[in-house]
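Batch manifest, entry 17 of 40.
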Amino acid sequence: MKHILFKYALLMLMFLPAVIYAQTDNKSVIKANKLYKEGKFDEAIAEYRKAAGTNPGDGVVQYNLANAIFKKESFDEALATYDKSIELNKDNIFREKNIYNKGVSYTRQKKLPESIAEYKTALKIDPNDEDARHNLQKALHEQRQQNQSKDNKPDPEKKQQQQQKKQQPKDQSKFNRKQVEQLMKALRQKEQDIQQKMQQNRTRATTQPDKDW
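Output type: structure tokens
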């Protein structure tokens, strides 16, 4: 996805000098564009900031500043700068490029729902944007895979409950040898007590005198 973003960045940069010359002779912008193409992004960012200070209402400068910040992988700051660029320039073609690049920024952060929303918005503005369509399809595919993976993943709490349920009958019916011997001894003693009591009852019955009516 980086090469798709880069294509857009270069597309804007190739036409940017002509736009700038028509507005103002801004040396910082010209220098920043050159530095960006040379891959010197820290220096390019500094020059774009100078240009933004001179022309705070220039959405094109903000767009290129956002692209340079993106190259430093400061995605949250890049997103905020793309939003500022959109606020300053309401042209649909220009807005679509900012929104597309926002989608790529979210994708790089693995924020699929946000990236999907941005690609959809970009396609509403420009239904012929094949790059946005390709990235949207890829993001949707990754999202489906993630959802399937979550559905197939066992619930740890449920698994623990099932294990406890399986172990419970075993634990209840499990007696060690000593416990079995004690239980048998108690049963024998009880049986002896019952027999002894029955014997005593018989003795009483044979020795008891007849009632005198």
